[in-house]
Design a protein that fits this description.
It is built from 30 helices and 18 strands. It is globular and about 95 Å long. The structure holds adenosine-5'-triphosphate.
């Protein structure tokens, strides 16, 4: 807490009263604000608090974009929002400003717990949102946190209990909710889904549903994307009822316009699959002064093209980015690409959505995207915020017609380009020679070939992606391979399932490849695991010991894997999940069981009896008469019935247990927070020489945290909100305020250390 000049109790009370009046005034202005009659253009024309306005203006956000002008007032009025606007049109601020405002008006403090949750489908996008939040929220008193995976969960969760605004990816957020150590969601005011259609699609369905189940239904929900799903079932999943559509969804006529920016010049070329790499290399060589992103369909494609092209030295820096890289490498590449002016990034769709790279000249889609929406997001990495940009998509003759039709249905009609014969140059001999010399590269080429072929097979749109027409032999030659590697497309069901689960942890994908019995299938053969084999052994004493060892080691692995969601997402007990044997779970229990077993084997079974109302004794598990038994159905039916009832019971008990445990934890936390709050209030009331209350400024002093801070900025900008209230000149001069350059965090580590410092405040 920053120490300020001494204030008496009376002065503090007066400031508090002033602030309450100010908040009321903002609320009244918000209710009176009518977007239809208002011609507000600047942020300061909206009923937004001074500290948020100050954060905006210092980040050079003065004039609103269309989506901001439409969405912010609606959100301030408390409506749920379904917002769609073109890529690069400023959707991020359209949800961050309402979050800060809402919490300010609710007088949110660190003791009130989590107030807003922002979910983003990728780590990179979550980091970017978090960065913008820390910039514009620098003069507010909230704490912000970023949880994106790739880091120790414990490390993160220890820091979460005081977080007011949390930004993260679905999997990691759910992991924290499941652990329920620091994160309390019972007070949550606002939920935001950025790239909502992606967050809502199959890949994230279970995770998102599980997150939403943890949130109070009274919250406000905002959904944003350039390509919005407004399917009623999706909206119902989020309990979005009385929502407003803003942006391009608001006006049906706007739907007729393309979802791509008008400043984007779009083109396509029809190119046989086996000529793609030649054309791609020629394209790079003829655009050495440009900033280019090239999208390929898989990480293996990216890896292969990156490794071979850089050996062929096209004359421009090459970077590569895909989801299989370590997070530090991904973040480093993002930073390098953002900063460079002449550079070529080879990437998968991990950066297709939301990422705000400055000044990208060209987006090249070397492999056809899975649908028109993905096309829109990919090309949206260029021509952002009114700037100019160009895009090129390479379509094979098999894909061309159908994909152009898909684009046309979205009112996108790229211009046809042809390649000059003189510019065409085959790189096949070079690739062949590289692969011949380096077996590692040959291996990469084989992998790239296989992953491309598989990627075509698993595409949903069979009119565009014609697997049967793939010229495999020519394609393999074009990669420098002597012939097409043999691929057996086996277990395709599992691949399709895995595709749906594209963004789930790999541990989950491996589960997707198991059959209904939980066994891993390879071709037609069923692979029996060590445990299966052991379960077949008759010697149960040996079995229980081995089982214990195995389950112990598995338990450790599980801790490291992202398995929380599996456990949470599916509590239904399948027949096949039931263990055939009951195995003691601890070493002590095991020993006890073993000794019991030994003594039972020598003593014979004891019989436990129960007595009915007539005083007649019966064994506890009395056998039914055969006739009676058959009357109830076949043994198989009865078994199923029994299992069904037991699983229902277990699932109910499980839910209740979880709820009770959670409530207990939350109650404990609430009490602790209340006690702290009371203590703090008492302190504030008693200590006459104590400084101003609620003197947290921003999420810490962001500018200090981030290093370079413009020294011209006078300390008064770091006053508490009470301090600011006393002076009106601030807001009047917002437009004149010098813009302060804040140094960007360089790496994920920077962001994380920033987060931890923010939290310490
Ligand atoms: N009001 C504003 N004034 C100046 N610049 C702005 C404003 N709003 C947004 N920008 C800038 O415009 C760029 C695009 O904004 P943003 O990333 O929010 O777009 P988006 O609509 O979310 O795009 P996408 O659909 O690709 O996710 C960013 O560089 C951002 O800083």
């Amino acid at each position: 807490m920053a120490r300020k000049g001494k204030l008496t109790t009376t002065q503090r009370k007066q400031l508090r009263r002033q602030e309450n009046e100010y908040i009321e005034e903002l609320a009244t202005k918000t209710q009176e604000y009518d977007p239809k009659t208002s011609n507000a253009k600047m942020f300061k024309d909206l009923p937004i608090s001074k500290n948020v306005l100050k954060g905006l203006s210092q980040s050079a956000f003065i004039k609103m974009t269309d989506i901001q002008r439409d969405a912010i007032p609606m959100a301030l009025k408390g409506h749920d929002i379904l917002g769609a606007a073109k890529t690069g049109s400023g959707k991020t601020l359209a949800f961050l400003v309402p979050i800060l405002e809402k919490l300010y008006r609710e007088k949110w403090t660190e003791f009130d717990g989590l107030g807003a949750l922002v979910i983003s489908p990728t780590r990179e996008l979550a980091m970017q949102i978090y960065e913008v939040l820390t910039k514009i929220g620098t003069h507010t008193s909230f704490s912000a946190g970023l949880v994106i995976g790739g880091k120790d969960v414990k490390f993160e969760s220890e820091r979460l209990s005081k977080i007011n605004i949390l930004v993260g990816t679905p999997g990691r957020i759910l992991q924290h909710l499941d652990q329920a150590i620091g994160l309390t969601t019972s007070n949550l005011q606002m939920l935001v889904l950025d790239e909502a259609d992606r967050c809502l699609d199959m890949g994230f369905k279970k995770t998102l549903d599980a997150i939403v189940n943890n949130l109070p239904p009274t919250r406000q929900t905002l959904l944003f994307s350039a390509t919005q799903s407004n399917s009623l079932s999706d909206l119902a999943r989020l309990s979005l009822t009385d929502y407003k559509m803003v942006g391009t969804l608001e006006n049906p006529n706007d739907n007729l316009k393309a979802a791509t920016p008008s400043t984007l010049q779009q083109s396509y070329i029809e190119v046989p699959l086996c000529d793609k790499l030649d054309i791609l290399f020629s394209f790079i060589k003829s655009h050495l002064k440009a900033k280019i992103i090239i999208f390929l369909s898989s990480s293996k494609q990216v890896h292969f093209v990156y490794e071979t092209f850089r050996k062929m030295q096209p004359g421009i820096s090459l970077l590569h980015l895909h989801g299989r890289q370590k997070q530090t490498a991904r973040t480093e590449t993002l930073v390098k690409f953002s900063r460079a002016q002449q550079v070529c990034l080879l990437a998968t769709d991990v950066v297709a959505r939301g990422i705000d790279f400055p000044a990208v000249d060209w987006v090249v889609q070397a492999d056809c995207p899975e649908d028109a929406d993905t096309y829109i997001h990919r090309v949206g990495r260029s021509a952002r915020y009114g700037k100019k940009g160009k895009s090129l998509i390479m379509l094979t003759p098999q894909e061309c017609q159908a994909f152009l039709a898909r684009l046309k249905s979205k009112h996108i009609e790229p211009e046809k380009l042809t390649i000059k014969q003189s510019k065409k140059k085959s790189i096949k001999p070079q690739l062949q020679s590289l692969l011949f010399k380096d077996p590692e590269l040959k291996y990469l080429a084989q992998k790239a070939f296989i992953s491309y072929v598989k990627s075509i097979y698993i595409q949903k749109d069979k009119e565009v992606f014609k697997f049967e027409e793939l010229p495999t032999e020519e394609f393999a030659n074009s990669l420098g391979l002597p012939g097409a590697p043999k691929i057996k497309i086996k277990g395709m069901k599992a691949i399709e399932r895995a595709k749906k689960l594209k963004n789930t942890p790999r541990s989950l994908l491996s589960l997707a490849n198991t059959n209904e019995d939980g066994e891993v299938e390879k071709g037609n053969k069923t692979v029996r695991t060590k445990i299966d084999k052991m379960f077949e052994r008759k010697n149960q004493t040996v079995l229980s010991e081995h089982y214990l060892n195995i389950t112990k080691s598995n338990a450790n692995e599980e801790e490291e894997d992202d398995f929380m969601q599996v456990k949470r997402a599916n509590h239904i007990l399948n027949e096949d999940d039931l263990p055939t044997l009951s195995i003691p779970s601890s070493t002590r229990a095991q020993k006890r069981a073993l000794s019991k077993k030994a003594s039972i084997s020598t003593k014979g079974n004891a019989t436990k009896l129960v007595f009915d109302d007539e005083g007649v004794s019966h064994p506890v598990y009395e056998l039914e008469g055969e006739e009676d038994f058959h009357k109830k159905g076949t043994a198989e039916e009865q078994k199923k019935d029994f299992i069904h009832k037991e699983s229902e019971l277990m699932s109910k008990v499980d839910t209740v247990d979880k709820q009770v445990a959670k409530e207990k934890k939350q109650e404990k936390k609430r009490k602790r927070m209340e006690a702290m709050k009371r203590e703090k209030e008492a302190e504030m009331a008693d200590e006459s020489d104590f400084e101003e209350p609620v003197a947290y400024l921003g999420t810490g002093n962001l500018s200090d945290d981030m290093g370079d801070y413009d020294s011209d900025e006078e300390p008064s900008t770091k006053k508490s909100r009470y301090g600011d209230l006393s002076s009106d000149s601030e807001s009047a001069s917002i437009e004149d305020t010098n813009i302060i350059e804040v140094e960007e965090p360089q790496t994920l580590e920077d962001l994380e250390s920033l987060t931890s410092r923010l939290i310490q405040n």
